[in-house]
Amino acid sequence: MQHFFVSNLKWDEPTGCGTSELDSKQAHHLSCVLRAKVGDELTVAYAREIFRAKISDITKDTVSLEVYKPALPNSELPLDLLLVQGLPKADKLEHIIMKACELGVSEIWPCVCERSISRDKKEKLAKLSQRRNEIALAACKQSHRAKLVEVQPSANLFDVLNMIDADYILFAYEQSQTEQNLANWFSEHYAELSAALKTNVANSKRKRIAILVGPEGGFSEKEVLQIQSLDKAFTINLGSRILRTETAPLAMLSYLMLELEQLTIKVTEYQFV
């Protein structure tokens, strides 16, 4: 079943039905590319929830929908995963965006580091941002996400770290002498994360875990020292192999996705005991 995102949803509480419309780009894709017809069913995501919907009308620029409660189960993670990614060369960032969205990331923050070979030109920032968010939208639709991932415009590394408001920063460092890996870190913070899930009710502040990965040249010594001096930063060893900049974030996201999903199951079972 096709999956789309809507930015507004009006409910008729007595009937449990709602109405919404797709934006022009999604409407064009559904009506002209997928050749959908009135009466066809699909799912829509709104406010971190997924609902069944049916096409009620199709015009040149819009697709109108009837939306039905209750919300369907969705696979969003209970905590927000942020990816702070050093700008890589060529189109590697597009691949990272696509796969990170599939693996449950909440936000993507491209950043410029001292050793970044690729840098976004100011006059192209708007166009690049639009392109990257279109890739994120397509990946979120394909993986039936309940939350649309936003890719921020690229900025200086430490400007980004000041903006993300993360509770934890997991710093992937290929020359790390520490033995702390993701499994160790997760075990050490298991109680904190469990408590966060138990109190994670609607409108409360969700815990935010940032993953920090450098560009092809890695981080400079100056950057490493500055990152490690941050109170919320934890240097993570990803093993004996040196991973490419496009591999490291996906390895970290995969591990965290699986651990957080298992933690959610355990917390849910505990609440119903």
TrEMBL record:
A Pfam family this chain is assigned to: PUA_4
InterPro entries: Alpha/beta_knot_MTases, PUA-like_sf, RsmE, RsmE_MTase_dom, RsmE_PUA-like, tRNA_m1G_MTases_N
Keyword check for rRNA processing: yes
Main subcellular location: cytoplasm
Family matches, as Gene3D superfamilies: 3.40.1280.10
Record GO terms (molecular function): rRNA (uridine-N3-)-methyltransferase activity
Name this protein carries in UniProt: Ribosomal RNA small subunit methyltransferase E
